[in-house]
Every structure is written in structure tokens, then in C-alpha cells.
Design a protein that fits this description.
The chain is an alpha/beta fold. The chain is built from ten helices and eight strands. Helix 3 packs parallel to helix 4, helix 4 packs antiparallel against helix 7 and helix 4 runs parallel beside helix 8. The structure holds NADP nicotinamide-adenine-dinucleotide phosphate. The site of NADP nicotinamide-adenine-dinucleotide phosphate (NAP) has 32 residues, from helix 1 and helix 4.
Length: 275
């Protein structure tokens, strides 16, 4: 039988690296640190090795469909699938960034929503029975959902929204942002927030689909917030260390065999949150 395997995206630094570090200590299987840049990834693998931790490396740029497909083929060939997938890779423009909102909307949605969706399209079929999928979203998704128009809120909370409808809404946000009409369209003024509304909603859609299409496989898929974490993204004033930020994603990644919940939820501090 193939060894068990865990894959973490965007794990050359920040919360992703701390998730790999914790999985190396707690997961009975092989752990893959992945990064879009091979040099940054290998440096991170070496930093773990200097702590006595063994992580494997595979290049993975979630913005690059070929990179996703190459990685998916590798894990299928070498391990027959994937046991744990943590979609951690994400970006955020700094508050002071002078890039126009239209650019911020397009670029942020591309990675945080559309590229993560591409990862899930190509990796979900590889998730083995009993597998765990964790999408690192943010508490900002809950705050931003509340700032959407009632009509949008209703769709994001509905149980019948499809992936196609959701992707259409995410694209509508980008298109309206380009015309500076997103506020009239019922959207909040935050590209990062909307991208994470999309990711949390997508997690709920895909969990329902797994329950329907693979009811006996016991796969659990959730979105989570790591908290406010001191990384290059959030800066030094944030309240949690990367190790503390990894706690909830790792808890979801290591939900014990036979567990039936949480599934399709948004989880923060190991607690299911209202969406
Ligand atoms: P970070 O320190 O900026 O790290 C982000 C990681 O994602 C880096 O490894 C980065 O790689 C990688 N990445 C970005 N685009 C990628 C792509 N296209 N393909 C592969 N990897 C890519 O940020 P962080 O704070 O650890 O954030 C990790 C996740 O937690 C993100 O999804 C973020 O939205 C979420 N989050 C963070 C906080 C917080 O307070 N920090 C709060 C809520 C949620 P490079 O080094 O190559 O850029």
C-alpha cells in the first residue's frame, strides 16, 4: 500500500510553513511542502531539516494550470492519490498599495478564488477515502459576507448555489470592479474579502457535492480562519504566531478516522462559526 501523503500549498513561509512543520510532527505519513518558487521552497525544506523535520518538496504554482496538473499527476502516480490537502496559498494587497481597485480585484480573485478552485478541480478526484481537505479562508469572509447586498448574501448562504453560479458571481465582481460599479452591484469595497467569501462558499458547495457523490468515502472538507497571524501578509502587530495560526488548519487536517464532522463548515479556533 502507498504511504499516506499530505500536501500544503504556498508553504515556503508564513502559516503554510507552520502547517507543514506541525504535520511533520503529527501526521503518520509523508508531508509535501510546495511553493511556486523552487528556490524559496527548497530553502524552507532545509530550514525544517535543521530542526530535524523531514518535509518533501514539489513545485506548485496555483496560478499556473500546468503546474497544478503536473503536481496532481505526480501524486496520483507516486501515492495513488492524496490523504490531506491544505489549500493555504493566498495573496493580499497591502493597504497602502497604490494599485487601482480594479487591478486588486482581478489579481486577488485570480489566486484566492479561481486558482484555488482550479486546485480543487484537479485534486478533489485524487482525495482518498478518509481524506481531509482544508481551505484556508479568513474571518474577513464572514465580515465581508455581511457587507454584501441581501440578495448576494442569500445566494452565498443558500444550499442550492452551484460552483458555476458562484464562479459567475466572482467574475461579476471583477467585471464590475473594472467599471467601478461593484458597490452598485451590492459588493463590499474589499477584493480580499470577496475572494474569501468565494472560497468559504466554494468549500460548502464542494462538501455537499462530496457527500452526494462519494457518500461512503468519509472525506471531510472545511474552510477555516487561522486567526490574525504575524506573517508577511498581516505584519508584526498581529496577535498570533505562525505556529498558533496553524492550529485550526492542522486540527481540521487531522480530524480522526471515522469522524463525520465538521464538514462543509467555516471553522475558527477549532469551533464551527455561523455563516
Ligand atoms: P504569506 O506569509 O504572505 O504567505 C503566503 C504564501 O502563499 C507564500 O508562501 C506565497 O508564496 C504563497 N503563494 C501566493 N501565491 C501563490 C501561488 N500562486 N502559488 C503558490 N503559492 C502562492 O501569508 P500568510 O499570512 O501565511 O497567509 C496564508 C493563508 O492564510 C492565506 O490564504 C491568507 O489569506 C490566509 N490568512 C492569513 C491571515 C493572517 O493574519 N496572516 C488571516 C486570515 C487568513 P511566495 O513566497 O512565493 O509569495
Amino acid at each position: 500500500m502507498s504511504a499516506k501523503v499530505a500536501v500544503v500549498t504556498g508553504s515556503n513561509k508564513g502559516i503554510g510553513l507552520a502547517i507543514v512543520q506541525a504535520l511533520c510532527k503529527q501526521f503518520q505519513g509523508e508531508v509535501y511542502l510546495t511553493a511556486r518558487d523552487v528556490g524559496r521552497g527548497q530553502t524552507a525544506v532545509q530550514s525544517l531539516a535543521s530542526e530535524g523535520l523531514k518535509a518533501n518538496f514539489h513545485q506548485l504554482d496555483i496560478d499556473d494550470l500546468n503546474s497544478i496538473k503536473t503536481a496532481a499527476a505526480y501524486f496520483k502516480e507516486k501515492y495513488g492519490g492524496v490523504d490531506i490537502l491544505v489549500n493555504n496559498a493566498g495573496i493580499a494587497f497591502k493597504m497602502a498599495d497604490p494599485a487601482p481597485f480594479s487591478t486588486q480585484a482581478e489579481v486577488t480573485l485570480k489566486t484566492n478564488y479561481f486558482a484555488t478552485r482550479d486546485m480543487l478541480t484537479h485534486f478533489l478526484p485524487l482525495i482518498k477515502p478518509g481524506g481531509r481537505v482544508v481551505n484556508v479562508s479568513s474571518f474577513v469572509s464572514v465580515m465581508s459576507l455581511k457587507k454584501c447586498s441581501p440578495a448576494l448574501q442569500q445566494r452565498f448562504r443558500s444550499e442550492d448555489i452551484t460552483e458555476e453560479e458562484l464562479s459567475g458571481l466572482m467574475q461579476r465582481f471583477v467585471d464590475e470592479a473594472k467599471k467601478d460599479q461593484h458597490k452598485q452591484g451590492g459588493w463590499p469595497d474589499t477584493a480580499y474579502g470577496v475572494s474569501k467569501v468565494g472560497l468559504t462558499t466554494l468549500s460548502m458547495i464542494l462538501a455537499r457535492r462530496l457527500s452526494k457523490e462519494r457518500p461512503n468515502d468519509g472525506i471531510l472538507l472545511n474552510a477555516c480562519c487561522p486567526g490574525w497571524v504575524r506573517t508577511d501578509m498581516a505584519g508584526p502587530k498581529a496577535t498570533k504566531s505562525p505556529e498558533e495560526g496553524a492550529i485550526t488548519p492542522v486540527y481540521l487536517a487531522l480530524l480522526p478516522p471515522g469522524a463525520t464532522e465538521p464538514h462543509g463548515k467555516f471553522v475558527s479556533d477549532k469551533e464551527v462559526q455561523t455563516w
